[in-house]
Amino acid sequence: MRALYTAATGMKAQEYNVEVISNNVANMRTTGYKKQRADFQDLLYQNLRRMGTETSDDGTIVPTGIQIGTGVKLASTGRVMSQGSMENTGKELDIAIRGEGFFQIQLPGGATGYSRDGSFERDQNGQLVTIDGYQLDPNITIPENTRDLTIAPSGKVQGVDEAGATVDLGQIQLARFVNKAGLEAIGDNLFLETDASGAPQTGNPNEDGYGSTQQFFLEMANVDAVTEIADLISAQRAYEMNSKVIQAADQMYSTTTQIR
Known about the structure:
By secondary structure, the protein is of the alpha+beta class. The chain folds into two domains: 3-80 and 223-257, no CATH class; 86-219, no CATH class. The protein is 22% helix and 32% strand. Strands 7, 8, 11, 15 and 18 form a five-stranded antiparallel beta sheet that branches. The radius of gyration is 27 Å and the shape is elongated. It comes from Roseibium alexandrii (strain DSM 17067 / NCIMB 14079 / DFL-11). Residues 214-259 form the Flagellar basal-body/hook protein C-terminal domain.
């Protein structure tokens, strides 16, 4: 009886679904986190009577046929790249992106990571770095005695030096991708370029479709608690229904073995 194995694939699929939901809920307060969604596909079908076959010498065609499905599989855990809510932190080195684009981060070994997490700090050399100490690319250095730091929506970084003069400190650039959902998440709020994402296209904020930079703000996770709980309940009920199918199939097996 294939129903046992078909229902088992349904239970396994919902286990994956709950795991994805749990990761979303766990990252509700993660800066720049983009939620995931479990997508499923039906498995192969067994054709007991193929549609379109002829049933007589006159060319009579079977209109529908008989196909028995074998269950479901996890097809992808696509990432939803919608804008997260903006939170005012009051910290001058916190930068949010409103719209398209990613910060470019120099990773150890020379690779470039991409992030929506704009919680930056200054290192011992005055360079703008992430919480893990990775430099922003292009590199921006803020001299020790610089005050009244200003980061414009265009990404231009300025400050006031000891003499009271306004000085340009650098230009933040953003990267965007044809398929940003194809980026590979590696943890630490970082993504890597893949063949699926396409090559990065870089430009200045607020120009040519790139998003703007917002100083004193951070972009929070785009996870909606109510939606995740509703999805969790739905996954739980689907899991229970598949378990009921297994119980029913087992009872039918038991009835068959008891026939004398």
